Fold this sequence. Notes:
The chain has 479 residues and is mainly α. It has helices at 5-28, 30-34, 38-49, 62-73, 78-102, 106-115, 130-150, 155-170, 177-190, 198-219, 224-233, 237-243, 247-257, 261-276, 280-300, 304-307, 312-334, 340-360, 362-381, 395-399, 405-415, 432-438, 474-478; strands at residues 386-390, 423-427, 443-446, 449-452, 470-473. α3 crosses α4 (62-73), α6 packs antiparallel against α7 and α9 runs parallel beside α17 (312-334). It is elongated, with a radius of gyration of 24 Å. Mean pLDDT is 92; it is low at 304-308.
Amino acid sequence: xxxxxxxxxxxxxxxxxxxxxxxxxxxxxxxxxxxxxxxxxxxxxxxxxxxxxxxxxxxxxxxxxxxxxxxxxxxxxxxxxxxxxxxxxxxxxxxxxxxxxxxxxxxxxxxxxxxxxxxxxxxxxxxxxxxxxxxxxxxxxxxxxxxxxxxxxxxxxxxxxxxxxxxxxxxxxxxxxxxxxxxxxxxxxxxxxxxxxxxxxxxxxxxxxxxxxxxxxxxxxxxxxxxxxxxxxxxxxxxxxxxxxxxxxxxxxxxxxxxxxxxxxxxxxxxxxxxxxxxxxxxxxxxxxxxxxxxxxxxxxxxxxxxxxxxxxxxxxxxxxxxxxxxxxxxxxxxxxxxxxxxxxxxxxxxxxxxxxxxxxxxxxxxxxxxxxxxxxxxxxxxxxxxxxxxxxxxxxxxxxxxxxxxxxxxxxxxxxxxxxxxxxxxxxxxxxxxxxxxxxxxxxxxxxxxxxxxxxxxxxxxxxxxxxxxxxxxxxxx
Length: 479
């Protein structure tokens, strides 16, 4: 991106600083991020089975999973492994940013920092997010191939690198097909950032299409991704009309004026810059891409009542790829035209505001950490190893999501060097079937279902197989 080199280089260092701040924040809030749902579930299973625990064919997630896997192979203390895993996510994003900078793709680095902040608040604490990992791979992909294009790399050298990086990007999460395809067309239309003739461009485009097709065939079966893809691949014009009215879309629009108002300003300013630059094709492409993304989200979460109840941390991750589309005109059309000091000041303000929103989300996740520590402390005092907490009040609501509570508590107990580890879960008072199963002392509750406690005996984990679960309310436990 030779045109942007001088005007965006200093701004890219600001983007790199933001990625570093997010990394440092991940160190400070490592417990809130690690002991939250998927990260605990995956870390537990990696250490339990001594192998990578890739979900839904999202193979690019190996980049972070290799940390606890190697830690287990090296027999490191569980606390060291867990902290390393918690740190690895934003370390990967920071390293990806450094690669983008070293490839001299300064505009991409600014875009990357905006992608991880513009539509982010709660989702920052959902650390094991394959969408964010896929986006990091995407920025590495574009930085490397654009640099190779600038240096005039032959197709024979470009193609293997292109296929490898495009493959790992698209196989990390399916939704990244959208921002990746958007950028591909945007740069091609823009011309200034395009380094290949028509023949090479067609060959590379065909490679992307081929990888997308293979990914689609892999996930087009009974799976989590297949369920979400069904409505996107089976719809009518009437469904599209309903999609734009879906609750998930309505809430997003409201949030664009509430918690994402800076993103709205960034988007609007970028569109104005494209208009006055007479880049009408780029302007049309951005608008079409935004509309298409919103329709896809409406189709995916077509059940309005369910869509309205989607947790903020989850739905923000789904909107993350839209941040790429929103921010591209701002980065590549507006910032280079501004005086350097004004561009720097504006970008600083954008980042500061978004980082504040991320910080504001911290207390709700800190509450979960405090709750677990309190429960484990009382369990130790009362010599309880397995506990079913009868739900009262707003415990489940405040905990946000409790399906991985057993793994979260086991890992936290392991970090405290307890053996056997203490574990607890929430239990509805009316669920007599589950309560009966938990009365078997040989069983331990993991991820919604009882498991044999003996099967969890590893170098790091051992659950009590001699005593059944104790049942009491949180208030009774605290007495």
